[in-house]
Structures are given as C-alpha cells and as structure tokens.
C-alpha cells in the first residue's frame, strides 16, 4: 500500500518544521534533573507547531484519524529530532492515550479529557506498571496488585505504580486497577482522572538511561483515590482488553518515531564520515566504516518495510499481538544496531552531547524495553508457534 497524497503533504510540512524549527532547540538548556525537556520548553515548541499547522498532525480537524499507514509516515517525520514528537504532540504516552480514548471513550469522556490532549493543552500518563519487588504487573499485566472497589457511586483505588511516564506534570491520567468484585473472579478496569490529585502521590522519579520524555518515569502511590463511576473507561472487567487496544498500535508508534531518530543519527554519522579524514583518506573510504553505514541503510529499509506491513494489517482491523510483537522485536533490534554503528563511526565525538547521536543511542536502548522487552515478545511468539502446531496436528 502506497502512502497517500494527503499523508505525504502533511509529512513534508512536518519534516520541514522538525528540521528547520525544532532541531535548533536540541541544545536548549531548559531540562529537568534527569535531562528531559521542561514543560516550558515543550509548550514553546507546541506553540510553534500550532502556528506552523503541524500540531497533532495525525488527527484531522474533524477529529478523524489518519490511517495507520499514513500515521506511520507522519510520525516517522516527527521523530527526526528527539524533540519533534513533543513539539508536534505525537509523543508517548499521549499519542497512545489519545488513540485509546478515541476508540473506547464515551462522548462525555472525550469532551472532558481527550479534546485538551488533541489540542496540545495537557499531557497525560498511563498508570499500569507496578513495582517488581512487590510482585506487581509488568510485562504480565495479570499480576496487577492495584485494586478498585465500589463505594456508593464512586470507585476507590489503592496501590503503587512505577515507571509511569510523564506522571510529574500530567493533567490527565488513565489508571488501571483490578476490581475486587467483578464477576468471574475480578477483572481489570480503567479510569480517567484529572491530575494532579492528592490521592496520587509521586514517590520518586528515578534517573534513567533515556531523557526525552517530560516528567520522567515516576513511582507513585495511589491512596484511596475516589473516582466517580462515570469516569470508568469502557466496561468493568475489560481493562486488559482495552490495554491491548492501546498497546498494539503504541508499539508501532514507538517504532515510527525512533525510526525517524535513527535516520537522523545516520545522516549525522554519514556527514561525519565524509568530512573526517584518517590515514590519508575520508573515513567513508575505509571499508570498516563504509560497510557500517551501508548496513545502516539496509536496517533502515527493512525496519521501514516492517512498520509499513504492520500498519497495513492494523488498518484492516485484524492486527493481533503476534504481528505487533514481530514488528516491535524486529524494528527495535534493527534501530539498536543502527544507533550503535552511528556512535562507533563517530568515535569519541559519538559519545558526547555534541550531536544527538549519543541520545538516540540511549533512547533506543530503552525502547527495547518499552511496551514489553524483546524476550517477552519472542516468548509470546513461541507460544503461538506451539499453539498453531497443535491446531494443525489435531492436538
């Protein structure tokens, strides 16, 4: 499936904006304690995106979304700078949260919570992951310890969450908890909440290897959070299903954005290799360097094709966990190889903050864990292989 003319037009505007307006901000000193851009910087960039007509470019003026193939093309352009998705309002977790609200939210919840996200007036957070030391939910969401129970016309939520991206400074939260009294032994529920809320206390924001997301990845305590019943997202007990509605395209969105970042890192490494001389000739003419850049081109193209394939399936409405798992593994591992080669080609310069190459390396290393580490996806695929074999052989 080819990219539509409308997506190409949007993508061209986004690319020009990110390269010409956003990229010069990459050295802006407005950063928080772990190196992430402050909300002041992000808000300034969003204003420039709004003026350029490229704010939330994957959602059209009438509220309709681009197709996933079109979105893949546009989000890749926003990723050409680590600041691009923030400026264009296509960053995680907001992009995934907007997608989920658009699919599951009632008209009332969309008006109250979704609209301000689409307008770039608020950030959001998705409260699902829990501390491993407490045996909580991570790659296995069925281990969820956070609970919710009915009390009159409110749900009361208690628990601890960790690695909650953007919680510090978010104004919209999607909280996931396991109900104590839903039929069939309990089930997961999702709730929309206004933030900040005194019942949601940020306990700690650790320094992490990545530094592109405002608010960091917080550990939070949820202490008797009271949520009106009409702020439940969808139906009680269906939270795990809704999580998959969000996570399958979210995995693909991560692939899109970081593909753009690795393309830019490759461009920077290529420029360096052509300008830098050693042993009487440009680095690019040394086989060891030239071959690394050639391998980058191969990995970039293969990753692009995997993203396109997965996006086409998602547009049919048939995307399952197997396809998104394959894309997540293949693309994240390819992008890691690309980022690593870019650092290697640039030598000492590649490990400094003189360019974005070292940041892209750090971000992509973290991406191999976002939305499920490589090993979990391979395990899931192996289970599918076994299940399909049993079905084919009548076992």
TrEMBL record:
Highest rank taxon of the organism: Bacteria
Domain Acyl-CoA oxidase/dehydrogenase middle: 126-206
Molecular function terms from GO: acyl-CoA dehydrogenase activity; flavin adenine dinucleotide binding
SUPFAM superfamilies, per the entry: Acyl-CoA dehydrogenase C-terminal domain-like, Acyl-CoA dehydrogenase NM domain-like
Keywords, alphabetical: FAD, Flavoprotein, Oxidoreductase
GO annotations of cellular component type: cytoplasm
Residues covered by the Acyl-CoA dehydrogenase/oxidase C-terminal domain: 237-384
The UniProt record lists the keyword Mitochondrion: no
Annotated Acyl-CoA dehydrogenase/oxidase N-terminal domain residues: 5-121
GO biological process, one term: fatty acid beta-oxidation using acyl-CoA dehydrogenase
Keyword presence, Heme: no
Entry cofactors: FAD
Family assignment from sequence similarity: Belongs to the acyl-CoA dehydrogenase family.
Subunit structure: Homodimer.
Name listed for the protein in its UniProt record: Acyl-CoA dehydrogenase
UniProt organism field: Sphingopyxis macrogoltabida (Sphingomonas macrogoltabidus)
